Automatic annotation (TrEMBL):
Residues 166-285 form the 3-hydroxyisobutyrate dehydrogenase-like NAD-binding domain. The keyword ATP-binding does not apply. The active site is at residue 172. It comes from the Bacteria. This is 2-hydroxy-3-oxopropionate reductase. Keywords: NAD, Oxidoreductase. Belongs to the HIBADH-related family. Residues 4-163 form the 6-phosphogluconate dehydrogenase NADP-binding domain. It holds the Pfam family NAD_binding_11. One of its GO terms (biological process) is glyoxylate metabolic process. It comes from Streptomyces monashensis. GO terms for molecular function: 2-hydroxy-3-oxopropionate reductase activity; NAD binding; NADP binding.
Length: 292
């Protein structure tokens, strides 16, 4: 008997991920703020719930995929939230990328009510969500990880228990640091190559075959070539993640000199009204600095 799933947060990631669970045979009841996303869930064979409480009441496993810590707190706490309405023994898997401390606090508050919790943020983007090949970085206990693993297997390919509650978020913060710096390096190379008059398609192809190649370059190549900045992963969300990694690193005394510069460039894009664009729009920041 497969566990019954409740899914809260059906956005760019949550919609395709929940649909992969439906395809794998799970019974999924979902709630999110946009009616069109609820309609999409129902069309895919899931059940649209009228509220968080209704969605989670009978669930064995509750998965949340919302933007940031404030939304995780909003859906978890209070009389209409998950903790008040889930049944004892249910497992709450928060897959949002949030502050590690929020995950630690949530695990404690849920534990007091007999609800198990894992933090399980993901990497791999919208494409990874659709193809069910996400990397999933998990924080929590081995026993809860063992319960979650078959469910997570329907969503991702590389699924690793990183340590106690909050560890998944810490690893995700490192992931976001690496991705932002990598995009920035690619964007600088693109502007340099274009200003030099080199054929960009040829250049990116050959670069990708060598040590400069990366998942970022593979996945974002067309964004760079076509100046297509439809998200994908929004600058607003990457701004949030650069804040998380900057704070977490400061707390442990780790220096992020390059990360700090890239965080400023992400913030500047946001300040110029580009927060809704894909993070490959770091190219725009470099172009502006280069007068391109
Ligand atoms: P999104 O904005 O597309 O979706 C967020 C969803 O959360 C929306 O459908 C919204 O209705 C729902 N939501 C927000 N507040 C809610 C509430 N109070 N009650 C119910 N639903 C609520 O965001 P996304 O791109 O899917 O990202 C979700 C999370 O995944 C973020 O933490 C992000 O950092 C992370 N992430 C995103 C990507 C990506 O490529 N987009 C990749 C990896 C990780």
């Amino acid at each position: 008997n497969l566990p019954k799933i409740a899914w809260i947060g059906l956005g760019i990631m949550g919609s395709p991920m929940s649909e992969n669970l439906i395809k794998a045979g799970y019974d999924v009841t979902g709630f999110t703020l946009e009616q069109d996303k609820l309609d999409r869930l129902a069309a895919a064979g899931g059940t649209a719930a009228p509220s968080i409480a209704a969605a989670v009441r009978d669930a064995d496993v509750i998965i949340t995929m919302v933007p940031a810590s404030p939304q995780v707190e909003a859906i978890s706490y209070g009389p209409d939230g998950i903790l008040e309405n889930a049944r004892q023994g249910a497992l709450l898997i928060d897959m949002s990328s949030i502050t590690p401390q929020t995950s630690v606090d949530l695990a404690k508050a849920a534990g007091d009510k007999g609800i198990r919790v894992l933090d399980a943020p993901v990497s791999g983007g919208e494409a990874g969500a659709i193809e069910a090949v996400l990397s999933i970085m998990v924080g929590g206990t081995q026993a809860d990880f063992d319960i979650a693993k078959p469910v997570l297997d329907a969503l991702g390919k590389t699924i690793v228990l990183c340590g106690p509650h909050g560890s998944g978020q810490t690893v995700k913060a490192a992931n976001q640091l690496i991705v932002a710096v990598n995009i920035q390096a690619c964007a600088e190379a693109v502007v340099f190559l274009e200003k030099s008059g080199v054929d960009l398609t040829a250049a990116l192809d050959v670069l990708n075959g060598g040590l400069a190649g990366s998942t970022v370059l593979t996945r974002k190549k067309d964004n760079f070539l076509n100046r297509d900045f439809k998200p994908g992963f929004r600058i607003d969300l990457h701004h949030k993640d650069m804040g998380i990694v900057t704070d977490a690193a400061r707390n442990v005394g780790a220096a992020l000199p390059v990360g700090a510069v890239v965080a400023q460039l992400v913030a500047s894009l946001r300040a110029q009204g580009d927060g809704g664009l894909d993070h490959s729009a770091l190219l725009r920041a470099v172009e502006r600095l280069s007068g391109a």
